[in-house]
Amino acid sequence: MSLTNRILMAxxxxxxxxxxxxxxxxxxxxxxSLAQFINTYLIFGLFDVVGRIFIASLKLxxxxxxxxxxxxxxxxxxxxxxxxxxxxxxxxxxxxxxxxAVTLGLVGASVLGPGRGLxxxxxTAFEPKMPPPLTDVLxxxxxxxxxxxxxxxxxxxxxxxAILVGYSLTRAGEAGQRVAGWFRDMEAIVMKMVGVMIELAxxxxxxxxxxxxxxxxxxxxxxxxxxxxxxxxxxxFHGVVVYGLLLKATTGLSPGILRSKMRRVWAFAFSTASxxxxxxxTLRTVEKRLGVPKSVAGFAIPLGATVNMDGxxxxxxxxxxxxxxxxxxxxxxxxxxxxxxxxxLASIGTAAVPGVGLITLSLVLTQAGLPxxxxxxxxxxxxxxxxxxTAVNVTGDATxxxxxxxxxxxxxxxxxxxxxxxxxxxxxxxAAETSEVx
Length: 438
Hints:
Elements: H1 3-27, H2 33-77, H3 83-112, H4 134-140, H5 146-152, H6 155-169, H7 173-199, H8 201-215, H9 219-222, H10 225-251, H11 255-261, H12 263-272, H13 275-288, H14 294-307, H15 310-326, H16 333-346, H17 357-368, H18 379-407, H19 413-417, H20 424-435
């Protein structure tokens, strides 16, 4: 069985077993020895520990992978002047898709009306952690101490530092070439570490989903079914239709091929709910399976994992309209425009970690003049929706990287169109071919 299918099977098994444990715990005495055993030793014991170790191991690779990938990508450009064009296209496409995502969320929720006529209890108190002002976000992009930035996981600062180092290597003569060679060796080592982690993924995915569905299950969806179905439907529409049309219109490539090669990345994104934790898998897939060169992938994918939050943008649009409808507030055209602008800009400073969308939603609601305590209405189902949002985010990263590489004439379409590129089938075929050599 291929690794992708093993991961998907682990996802299904985790959801089924986790939901079964939730049902079992609801039917037995909470103080019984069986309930204590399931909660203490299984859900918050074995499965919790395995899942947290898996997430920590993935995050371990993020900073070194971003650093060496960006430096090698910049160094591979040499004295080429195309870096400015690559950066401009990448950032422009990310902002365009984010603005489109917010608009889609607002329009879709306004038409479908998930909050109309909904009777809810007074929401519990919600103390929002307000994000920093946009000016502080822009200033904080530039590191004063690159080592502190790496230690604290400040990815925008790491990206800026890596771009500066890579640019300098191309202009440092023989010394730059020697150091660039060292970073290329380091990249090979880090990618091997990524490969090891990917092989262990089914166990981590299985443990993560068991804990999630055992503690939440599907029962939390029932009370907010209209909101859940509206948001999840718009997320899937954006991930399949919007990205597909954008890719087809700008490159002529088949969107179905890209989606078929993203299944492994989706499994990671869905189980971790973190673009940052999924970054190593996304980067490897974009390079090895979609044919995007290091010079583009090494810039576009780490940047996208930090600033491209289309799934979160859709959530902010839908949640804003939903909360306004619940409270009986009519949103004006100026308020809707403010939501689009604020959500687009807020995505730049959004960390690629689970649940951060609720923080930026507080900012959006404040700017739109809506009650921030309304966030408490959607907390119950946000964790499940965050998993779908992350899958949309990583799809956007891969789509933009592919488009930029194609527009720069650097996309290897042979790899893109090869269904077995960097897959288990391809590796097995290569091994068989090698074994036949006398």
